Amino acid sequence: MTTYLLSWNPKIWEWVDMQDDIAEVTASGFYEMRWSSGVTKKIKPDDRVFLMKLGVEPRGIVASGWATSDVRQNTHYRDATKKALYIHVRFDTILEPNAVFPIEFLLNDTFYQKVHWTPQASGMSIPDDVAEKLEKDWAKFINQPVPVRKVDYADEIDGAKSFYEGATKQVKVNVYERNAEARAICIKKYGASCSVCGFDFSKKFGEIGVGFIHVHHLKPLSEIRKGYKLNPVEDLRPVCPNCHAMLHQRKPEPYTIEQLKAILKRAVV
What is the CATH number of domain 3-142? Predict the structure, then answer.
């Protein structure tokens, strides 16, 4: 396992769904998304990654996680005519952008000065001795135990092992308020079946599934300014949790309902 430093400059790319992604880490323990690897092609699944926020104060480490894919080429996030290198990352921690692990701590510590903490792009490898110390200092900063190496997907799982779980932690996040009446109008208009795949929880689970459905904002909540008046019929659609997650698999702009329908149609054999 190697440790890499990824970079994020809010001036270049606005993380519009960041608050939703922080909430997802709080609820599920992780959030997986695609991230640029710069010019680096060496990152492998299970490599450790830290995300450095640059360009906007306060600067510092804002997230940590594990690579879940090899480096792959895809369309550049800012220019569809160009290609760029990406990995998928499972973030285990995402901090509020104003509560980062300060870069000044790294720049002013003699031990850390062997690493260039303000790279122009993602993908810089961190020496093992520095990565080991960073893990400990990061764990202290977020008040969590030092993480153990994530199980490799190809490794055989030892069923005889046991693990400790259930420890509590206090996490402060901002969440976007939903309007219950707007949700009700949306469901009254479109029904409680998924707008993408057509799944109806009441048909599968009976009485306990009646009315159960997610409501997807066609315009992400993170882009909506305070006091925005949404139109439930024009701005909302009912979707099942699976399709809702898939809509947000693309960052920063989610897939549209029609785009995901087309993907689903191609995937069904």
Answer: 3.10.590.10
- The answer to whether the CB of 35 falls within 8 A of the CB of 266 is no
CATH 3.10.590.10 in the chain is located at 3-142
Give the pLDDT confidence of 119-156 residue by residue, as tens digits: 989 999 999 999 999 999 999 999 888 876 544 444 44
Backbone angles phi, psi at 217, to 5 degrees: -85, 120
The CA-based angle 198-203-206, given to 5 degrees, is 145
Taking phi over 0 as left and psi of -120 to 50 as alpha, with beta for the rest, 62 belongs to alpha
Note the residue count of the chain: 269
214 phi, psi to nearest 5 deg = -85, 160
